[in-house]
Structures are given as C-alpha cells and as structure tokens.
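Figure 3 (text version): structure tokens given as input.
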C-alpha cells in the first residue's frame, strides 16, 4: 500500500495516493513514515488541518526524523505563521544542518520579516546545498533587489525562471505519461 501510494504521488494523483496511505496507516498505526506520507498527500489536496495532524503524529512516533518538521514549517510559512515556521525549520536543522529546504524556508521567513542580510546568508546556504532549489534562487533574487544588488538579483531571478521552466516541463511529461502519450518507444519493437 505504501509503495502504491508513492507511485500515485509520483503521478500527481493525490486522492488515489491519499487513499493508499490512509489504508497503510490504518494497518500500521505506529509507522511515522506512513503518517508523514499521508500528511503530504493531504497537504497537496489542501486539507491542511488533517495534514498537520498527520505530521504531528509522525513526530510523536519518531521525533528524530526531519520531514514532518519540514512539512509543518511549510504549512506555517504558507499561513504566514512565521515564528512557528522558523521553529519547525530550525528543528530540521538540528538534525541536518545542510537541509536545503529548511535553509530556504528560514530565508523566506527572514525575507518576510525584512531581515535581508540574514535572508541572503540563509538562501545562499540553501543554494550551496541544492543548486536546483528554484524557490531559494527566487527569494535570493528578491532579497538582493531589496539590498540594492541588482545585477546579482537579475542573475538569481534568471536561474529561478529557468528552473521553473524545467519543473513545468517535468510536470507536462508526467501528465503525458499518465495519458499514455509520453513514451517515444510505446509503438516501437523491443531491441534484439
């Protein structure tokens, strides 16, 4: 059930994934990863209170894991609960000091709070951990504009735009595969 849920997540079929993860959690109520995965699908379906419950249950079961703290931080950030978001992202960093998503999340919190020098530092650290993190490039670009470093800002915003295009292309590929139109090899003969 868990692997089937992951497969549906990969295909962006969130309701189907939710159903599989819910069945999995029902059969394995003490599995922190199952609760986290169910929380992720609920968050994707914009069922935030339920997602929060699953992440919190996952943390109770395995307080050392980071993914549920990270996901709670994202929910808090989206709700503009900046102090709570920062607390959750810091919790991730106590276990993984180079977690690019948590560094980027803290950078966004600093940006929203107009602590631009801190935002620059955190977002640069996030990018150093994962250069493909579009959001970190985007917010670093916005922050650099605010501190008057226009040329550097333009460069970061261009990278963010390129990464966004790449992500959109990947989403289109997934959708084409879902509808049986994505493979160049679907009508070809097997290789001999």
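Below: residues designed for each position.
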């Amino acid at each position: 059930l868990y692997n089937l849920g992951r497969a549906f997540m990969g295909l962006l079929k969130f309701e189907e994934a939710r159903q599989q993860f819910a069945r999995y959690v029902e059969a394995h109520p003490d599995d922190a990863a199952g609760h986290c995965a169910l929380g992720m699908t609920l968050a994707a379906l914009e069922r935030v209170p339920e997602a929060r419950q699953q992440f919190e249950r996952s943390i109770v079961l395995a307080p050392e894991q980071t993914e549920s703290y990270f996901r709670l931080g994202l929910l808090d950030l989206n709700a503009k609960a900046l102090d709570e978001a920062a607390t959750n992202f810091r919790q991730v960093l106590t276990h993984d000091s180079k977690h690019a998503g948590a560094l980027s999340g803290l950078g966004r919190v600093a940006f929203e709070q107009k602590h631009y020098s801190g935002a620059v530092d955190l977002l640069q650290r996030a990018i150093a951990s994962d250069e493909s993190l579009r959001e970190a490039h985007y917010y670093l670009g916005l922050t650099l504009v605010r501190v008057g470093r226009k040329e550097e800002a333009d460069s970061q915003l261009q990278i963010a735009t390129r990464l966004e295009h790449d992500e959109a292309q990947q989403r289109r590929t997934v959708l084409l595969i879902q509808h049986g139109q994505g493979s160049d090899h679907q009508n070809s003969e097997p290789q001999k």
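The mean pLDDT is 89.
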